[in-house]
């Protein structure tokens, strides 16, 4: 059957003006990268070691690592508050912020309401003793197996109204100090479970689903009300415990724009059900964070033997934006010293990598409006965790821009944003600058281009485009029905 065509309604004059090849360099950008831990629950090099001491020099050494993009902090609650109504930040926190500022790195954090590896019986501040109900637990059966220090019997808070009110105060104190700081890239939603990971092991704090759901929603709502500018990361996995709040809270958090976080990549902790669950609940324009834990280097016996390169390839296959490297500065430093080439290979692919593969210059025949159209690709492994805006500038002046959909461009798919110039601006014989900005919740950051070009600025934020001198060479008429 012969197909009929309607007469062309619009005629465009268009030509290609630039092609860009992908860069193979490590290009740090907001919304992705390798997270190195300044503090956490596991402050030892390998199983069986005594906890080490975190010093300012050690954190500075970690911050100086080539593939350290985000400095991650995981303190106990008792380390941040010694009295009600104010913060008393520990030295390690201040050293991490100082080192990140000096090296142009970013920070992120999670606060632990309970920690089986704590030197203390409880992780809540001492001023809350006797004011909130505490429940005893024995986390492990063999002390050496989990580097247990301090009292063997420890206590986690009962998730009562008094506890939730005190936790809410902590959130707002932290938000008042850090929510508007552009260095703070994301904050984990915590407040429940061992390490703030939204799970217990043998204990079951709730008797019914309604109570679990109510507590989970309260913790999420309080976090989002406190941190209005900073992306929030929510632990997401299939909760196998009865009446676990995560079974009811993960979808709620994702509907409210939260990112996906997953701890412990590997073995029985990471099943096909978990991977399918991540994909189901994750929304376009949100980030995905996976930590690999200390077993990357010394603790491989925890899981079945898997070569390290294959293990990290599996992480990339999950389309993650961030990779947590070990649990402390020693793991990060050792990773660079013993596995530099592997770390570089991961850093060169991790997250999103923005490239205008092709650039066209066009003139709309009817309106005479000039425009640029990009063949924009993402050479990374993950979606963009936010909304990109592509800008065209002439000198310091912004000429025009185009906003993209959340998450775009997605890996493996070219998109074609069109940037139309105002009639008052002529692009003839001018050098334009192509730039990109990423909005992640309430914060906006410039984005580095992942291209190989002599026209790229040293900081990679600006890509110069030379306009053609002769408008009669290379143009093609295009007709559209």
Structure commentary:
The structure is a single chain. The chain has 481 residues and is of the alpha/beta class. It has helices at 56-63, 77-80, 91-103, 161-178, 209-226, 246-255, 272-281, 308-317, 329-338, 340-347; strands at 10-19, 21-22, 33-39, 70-73, 106-109, 134-137, 154-157, 184-188, 232-235, 259-262, 288-291, 322-325, 354-364, 370-378, 387-394, 397-403, 418-420, 431-440, 443-446, 451-452, 463-466, 476-480. An 8-stranded parallel β-barrel has the order 3-4-5-8-9-10-11-12, surrounded by 4 helices. Strand 8 (184-188), helix 5 and strand 9 form a beta-alpha-beta unit. Helix 1 packs across helix 9 (329-338) and helix 4 packs parallel to helix 5 (209-226). Mean pLDDT is 87; it is low at 1-10, 299-304 and 477-481.
Sum up the structure in keywords.
single chain, 481 residues, alpha/beta, 8-stranded parallel barrel, 5-stranded antiparallel beta sheet, 25% strand, elongated, disordered C terminus
Architecture blueprint of SSEs:
Blueprint: E1 10-19, E2 21-22, E3 33-39, H1 56-63, E4 70-73, H2 77-80, H3 91-103, E5 106-109, E6 134-137, E7 154-157, H4 161-178, E8 184-188, H5 209-226, E9 232-235, H6 246-255, E10 259-262, H7 272-281, E11 288-291, H8 308-317, E12 322-325, H9 329-338, H10 340-347, E13 354-364, E14 370-378, E15 387-394, E16 397-403, E17 418-420, E18 431-440, E19 443-446, E20 451-452, E21 463-466, E22 476-480
Helix pairs in contact: 1-3, 1-9, 4-5, 5-6
